[in-house]
Amino acid sequence: MDEIDRTLLARLQQDATTPYAALGQEVGLSGAAAHERVRKLRERGVIRRTTIDVDPAAVGKGVLAYVMIEAAAWMGGPETGEALRALPWVEEAHIVAGSPSLLAKVRAKTTSELQQALKGIFDIDGVTGTQTIVVLETFFQRPVDV
Amino acid sequence: MDEIDRTLLARLQQDATTPYAALGQEVGLSGAAAHERVRKLRERGVIRRTTIDVDPAAVGKGVLAYVMIEAAAWMGGPETGEALRALPWVEEAHIVAGSPSLLAKVRAKTTSELQQALKGIFDIDGVTGTQTIVVLETFFQRPVDV
DNA sequence: GATCTTGCCGAATCAAATACATACGTGGCT
DNA sequence: AGCCACGTATGTATTTGATTCGGCAAGATC
């Protein structure tokens, strides 16, 4: 994991369709060497996958909210994760320090769909309350700084 | 934006390296037709970009926190966004309803780096306070549901 | 009914990914 | 010093897939 690898990662985060030849040039390596490094980064799991960034608004998901979830007891077990994963609106779910003890990122088409998502969360066993923070506007969103 | 487009999006979110021929087969189209649809999705901005998903832990960023930011006055202007963007630890920044009025997703290598990030946020003009929610464990994180 | 537009197909072409054989440099060992 | 062994780079095939293109069919428009 040297500076070259970091540059490759940053470059691929910007545009994963960049040809290896061009990548190599940017870091002073041959295309084949760049390819080999990227292959290893994938192998080691540094690069989890190649994906596309879909504009949520373009697919109708105009409502974003963070939901802080209050739990009766410790809800750090995998069942909790699965229960949240079963709700298609939940994009992220974390265990957090303090009370509330869970945090979920929820994206919905409308506020009434958001309400439906909240109901889904409330119905999970052990959930005693939620507090929702509605996002009005997103300044920016960017990949991990490498 | 029909069912086929949505399937293509979902498939590309899973793996953007899938050949068009395979994509086409999955939706009952030729490779060329699938290619044309994806090209248009890009053109229309539904697909923002092709990128890689980097494991934050693999690049040392082991600490994740959400920071709720209290502001003296309305801080919805672009300067606020720029000020937050200037902090490399801030991955997302949103304007939210209520007080606190801003929310930032912060990723750092260590807690002391997190502290440094918080200092950076505090130093932004108009910020009167912050409340930090530290993530202990991430259940999951997945792309927009299409 | 003539014409346009849109979306699809299959084939041809072209670019890039991948595999391969080979060199180079570095550290450890005799 | 001389000699591996290993990891990494290079340049060159070879293969794979992206991209382009002409043609065709199904509506929509007038």
Automatic annotation (TrEMBL), chains A, B:
Record domain HTH asnC-type: where: 1-62
The keyword rRNA processing is annotated on this UniProt entry: no
Keyword line: DNA-binding, Transcription, Transcription regulation
Keyword Repeat: no
Organism field: Actinokineospora xionganensis
Protein name: Lrp/AsnC family transcriptional regulator
Record-linked SMART domains: HTH_ASNC
InterPro entries: AsnC-type_HTH_dom (IPR000485), Dimeric_a/b-barrel (IPR011008), Tscrpt_reg_AsnC-like (IPR019888), Tscrpt_reg_AsnC/Lrp_C (IPR019887), Tscrpt_reg_HTH_AsnC-type_CS (IPR019885), WH-like_DNA-bd_sf (IPR036388), WH_DNA-bd_sf (IPR036390)
